[in-house]
Amino acid sequence: MKGSCLCKAVEYEVDQLDMPIIHCHCQTCRKAHAAPFASSAGVMREHFRWTKGDDKLTAFESSPGKFRYFCSVCGSHVVAERPAQPHMIVRVATLNEDPGSRPEAHIWCSHDVAWLQDEEGVTFHEEWQPNR
User: Fold this and answer.
1) pLDDT score at 15
2) So what CATH class is 2-113?
3) Which of 62, 78, 130, 131 is the most exposed place for a label (fewest CB within 10 A)?
4) Is 67 exposed, middle or buried (0-12, 13-18, 19+ CB in 10 A)?
């Protein structure tokens, strides 16, 4: 499977997802992704390779020993890692195709904020909201 950042300056390939897709709601993931949660899956290092633009990556140590890698051009958060662990943490939303598996869990839901939880009465649109 191939993946990339938004501007395609950074590209990678994974042979497979080695761990389940998890939606993380922790405050750090929420802020790093500017989203209600981050969808990630572990990929063993031997199943991951950069194919373009690894020189365009910028790392940020968001907690002791955890590094988040962003494209320095468009800002997309592509992967994270703890160097001592045998796997990379791939941000599933950066995959260019369906990984063929579905999320198994939501974690750190204790970090949710009220405005992200209440969807009762919220209208959903297939595309852009009409009349805006």
Assistant:
1) 97
2) mainly beta
3) 131
4) middle
Find out whether 95 and 41 touch, Cβ atoms under 8 Å.
no
In order along the chain (132 residues), what is the average pLDDT of each group of 10 residues?
98 97 91 91 98 96 95 97 96 96 91 76 72 66
d(CA 59, CA 71): 9
Q: Give backbone dihedrals phi and psi of 116, rounded to 5 degrees, phi first.
A: -95, -10
Q: Which residues pair with 22 in a beta bridge?
A: 40, 105
- What's residue 17's pLDDT? 97
Is 132 exposed, middle or buried, given 0-12, 13-18 or 19+ CB atoms closer than 10 A? Answer: exposed
Distance CA 65, CA 92 (A): 21
